[in-house]
Amino acid sequence: MKTLSELRNYYNTTLLPELRVLEAQRKKALNKILIAALVIIPLAIILAFIMNDVVFPGIVAFGFLVGITAFVSKKYVSNFKTEIIGKIVTSVEKNLIYSKRNRVAKTLFMASQIFKHRIDVYKGDDHVRGKLGKTNSEFSEIHAQYVTRDSKGRRNHHTIFKGLFFIADFSKHFKGKTFILPDKAERFLGGLGAMFQSWNKTRGQLIKLEDPEFEKYFVVYGSDQIEARYILSTSLMKRIVDFKKKTGKSIYFSFIATKIFVAIPYRRNLFEPRIFRTILDFTPIQQYFEDLQLAVGIVDDLNLNTRIWGKQ
Amino acid sequence: MSILLIILVVGGLFVFTLYNSLIGKKNQVENVFASIDAILKKRYDLVPNLVSTVKTYMEHEKSTLTEITELRAKAVSGNLSSDEKVDLDNKISKMIGGIMVAVENYPDLKANQNFLQLQASLNEIEEQISAARRAYNAAVTDYNNATEMVPTNIIASMLNFKRKQVFEIGEAERKNINVGNLFKK
Fold first, then answer.
1. pTM of the complete model
2. pLDDT tens-place string over residues A156-181
3. What are phi and psi of A125, to 5 degrees?
4. Rg from Cα positions in chain B
5. Which of A66, A71, A243, B141 has a 20 to 30 A CA-CA distance from A55?
6. Residue B121 and residue A208: Cβ atoms within 8 Å?
7. Which of A192, A226, A232 to mutate to test binding with chain B, by most B CBs within 10 Å of its CB?
8. CB of B164 within 8 A of CB of B154?
């Protein structure tokens, strides 16, 4: 399944009956949440009058409601992922295996070396893996954080990366490391930015490439000038620029140990069902499908299935 | 007095940094040029394999095969100037390209496992050569900029550093290769 019209067809024939069952579950969960709210909110208001404080009861009530929502909708979310997301994944490509609780392993995330900060909390779900054409690939949603303590000893979580993390076998052999990072300095500072970038030696040498559009969006570091250009052929640079434009996001790439790692930041949660609005609607389904297509499409977009360089 | 000393020290450091960056750029150019040589040699190593694999199939291209073997022998013999190297390499590239096109006429050869492997290796090396040339051009551009831009140009002119040439595609290569001509002997 590749096109939107095929998806619409699939939605009407296969997904809709499932969605009707799930919609009943959603309504049931939503009712429980409403009942809980009807109990908790008046209690919080009374507490606010007694304590003569709004903030503390407000926070406690909000915390309770979030917890209850997560608790009563757990089964519904789980069923939704198995029945709907799982089905959409296999309908896009039948070789793919979906696992709602799994994620890209932390070791692999760290092996990409895209984000160098110490990771304290590593979460993620909606793992998809399988062979796309000739290319072994996997991806999942990842949320990596580090924790600091302030002067009062409170824990603060800071996001290192949140979004889609994709790994695939690269089509060429290589030995070193190459990083493609969003170019912030050069866009704002021009030539001066490029000079600062050449001083940054934490990721190897700065690699200046000849595609001006590519250089506008990205900065490349690598352990080997020639190898980085071997990986980044003129056609791959063009493809990466096109991919960047298609997603409209600041994307990170690294090429290490014959693998390509792609990190695409998202603010929203991916592949999560709605609770407060009806799911008998095509829009969210289309959203899941497009998010999935974006990840699966990386293989074609970057031409990873062309195996003419001695690597099978 | 002390102010003068500070100015002298800072000025001296500044000149050293400029000098070092210039030398670094010059060495980078030489370094990348040496890598091109290494990759070219990898390709020359494949030529005998290629010839022996296709020889049994290709009836009409015998003379091309002898010629490419001779060129390869010349290329690996050493004692060549850079220009000669580039020239030889161009000729060999063109001939390998020609052989790859001629293979289309030999379905048996196209299915030969040995040949397919060779073809993949050649593609890989071809891509590496192109990468190395791009790296060379980038290094040369960097070096040329340094020799012509203020303030490094002052030091460059004192050391008599000259502008270097980037790799360009020769007139012959820009034209489409005429495979028919290649095999007409």
1. 0.83
2. 999 999 999 999 999 888 999 999 99
3. -155, -170
4. 23
5. A71
6. no
7. A226
8. no
